[in-house]
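Loading example: each entry is read as two labelled lines plus one structure line.
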Amino acid sequence: MSWWKRALPGDLVHFPGSQEVDHYLYTPGLHGLKAAELLKAGKVPGMLCGDQLILPPKTFCPDERLSEGEVVEVEGPFIAALVTVIHEDFYGRKLEEPQVLAFITAQGAIGGYIGVVKASPGDVYPGMRVRPVFKPEEERTGAITDIAYWEPVAD
Amino acid sequence: MRVNLHVKDRVAIVGAGMTLFRRRLLETPRELAWEAARQALNEAGLTLRDIDCIVTGTAPDAFDGVHFNGEYLADGAGGFGKPVSRVYVGGGTGVMVPIAAWWHAASGHCDTVLAVAEEKMSPAMPHPQYVFAYIWDPILERPLGPNLIWIFAMEMRRYMYKCGAKKEDIALVSVKNKRNALDHPAAQAAAKITVEDVLNSELLVWPVNRLDISPVSDGAVALVIAREKTARRITDSPVWVEGVGFTLDNTHWYNRELAYPRYVQYAARMAYRMAGIERPWKEIDVAEPYDPFDYKELHHIEGLMLARPCEAWKLVKEGYFDRDGELPTSPSGGLLGVGNPIAAAGLMKVAEIFWQLRYEAGKRQVKKPVHKGVAQAWGDLMQAGTVIVLGN
């Protein structure tokens, strides 16, 4: 074994690589089409398996028959079940303002979505009620990012 | 090679299911797995509650564009709250999946196993072929820009030179398989074509033309596998896994005699020995050799010892491997006709042998009585061989 401490692009013995698959184009899936329609309409998508609400929708139910679920609008109420605070971004840069991130579920539902809660860290706590704030209609694309952020709901 | 023949339990396939094979399907990878798994469970008359373990197989994550693709699609395959494992040997994965499912059950560890293979190649842009750019040695091969078709072209050329086969002889395999696929409801590339159509199709890398190659595909296939006692309770017509074999040669493909796939022969010998088959050319009634290219079917027929080396191309001319021939090969239509979602393609071949041995293949049913069949897949850098022998 030996330790090769240099691996700079200008070195003689250096083997760069570049991924030739430069991007991916994912299909939405059976459930994804309906979910996209709901998001574009400013609604949160979920899935009904019998009477059980499941977030996010993914076509099949986690039951013994792998039965097909029904994609539906989830009206809430929504709850920030898990909460954390981000201080550095993906690249290790300090954020000017710490960002509150929560795992958001709906009352009676299994599962949920990750979302940014627009509030100061000290004001957000697990179990807090929140609601989605969608982008303006003309900016929506049918993606999960159509939910611009979540905001606390006053008790 | 020594094979331990003393397994705890006999194991059978009791249900199979598959999605359509298409160039680009709407379904996500986990939805493909779900559709195939649900079909297989329905065919066996079971639910997930009856399944003890899950085995999944997909080829590189780079196709689907989801790292941990096996884990990502596992819940579509019923893989939650149960022992789940994923196997991967490149193109050989599709037959390695039921082999792994077999040892899960034969060991006595699991009574029932749901085996699911999935591939969604279409997300990779600009073309899934670029994924293969990363299978080469990054220092001495990759900088030269090799392409898989280059080395397959050299292998095909070697087979032609060593065996005296002409391009028009080899093209007959593509004609046969695409014709067989006309009767497969899931087929992507079924067609009634002639040898001239193959020869006149776009020349890619001599001697490989467009119609010598299987297409890029999305799809999934699933099997339900059970130990003997349970299998007999589930169905009156279990299809027994009588032998399994698998080998891996090294990546130095240029050091091998490319006219003959010895690694396939090793895997086949292992499977035949376990199945008690001494003369496969006489005892195998129907075969699904791996056919991503038309010459590969001939190559693999010989590796599986269903024909002598360099004789498969002569027999295909005589109709020996036709659906009503002496030893039907790829009655499904194979990868050339049904499609080639890498891991799922191999398992499709096993499912076809299952349906053939149950006399449930419909219009694809071979004419002769069938008792034993073999399916085989091949993968990585022309180095992996996976073989399974089934009996009714």
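Chain B has a mean pLDDT of 94.
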